[in-house]
Amino acid sequence: MTEEPYRWVEAISNRREYIEHQLAGGSPIVALTYTDGILFLTLSRERQKIFEIYDRIAMGAIGHPGDIERLRMAAIEVASTEGFTRSTQDVSLRRLATFSLSPALKAAFEQIYGPPYLARMLFAELGREGEANLFTRIDYDGTMHTSGGSHLRSFEEYGVLAGTAIQAAAMEKHLAAAKHADKGLKEALKVAFDAWTIGHLTREEGDAPTPEAVETAQKQQLSEAVLEAAVLERSARQAATYRPLRQDELGI
Known about the structure:
By secondary structure, this protein is an alpha+beta fold. 42% of the residues lie in helices and 22% in strands. It has seven helices and ten strands. It has helices spanning 4-23, 65-85, 93-110, 165-176, 185-201, 211-224, 247-250; strands at 29-34, 37-44, 50-54, 57-63, 119-125, 134-138, 144-146, 158-161, 226-233, 242-244. The strands form two sheets. It has a five-stranded antiparallel beta sheet with strand order 8-1-2-9-10. A five-stranded antiparallel beta sheet has the order 3-4-5-6-7. It is globular, with a radius of gyration of 18 Å. It starts with a helix and ends with a helix.
């Protein structure tokens, strides 16, 4: 009996190590504020990575396609039910993440006799009536990282998703210095693609990739994959603000 707690801790450690290894090769995802809303960007080779969830909420994810789809459908169902039973104004990313998705991921991760979700998700919500945009990352174990807004720190105007913490930190460092919230879509696309490339090139802690290395890597990646991008537009005339960008709009 005294061995049971140790076995659980060891199982959780092994599970975490396995999932981290599986996610390490995932294509980074960038979400950032620009003048007319929020931009999502990544590079895709086979499957879609950016999705609409509700009127003002979008999601990007890396991991196992089946797990991503189950989590996406769960998010849509919770948001739609909330909007139907109460009102569309009551649908919020904070409630969706805090009371639904995060607990479900935590429970699946800690139940060692069942499979965990092999996925890492990034959500963004377009702020209403001058409010700041919200970015929230939810990990496979239910851990959440939000873009701030507490008494401890101001809002960050971006969110990132990457296979490793080192990659995410490098991307966040670039975005923190980019001043993209005041840029138009074309400039924001460049900032997002640069951040994606920095994440892609960063494998260990050290100096950031040079501009030359970033440019070379971008040309190579565009020959092997396609840019996937979408926006949540403040200027949208309908309640649903999500819009995938066409290839001719990317201009990269």
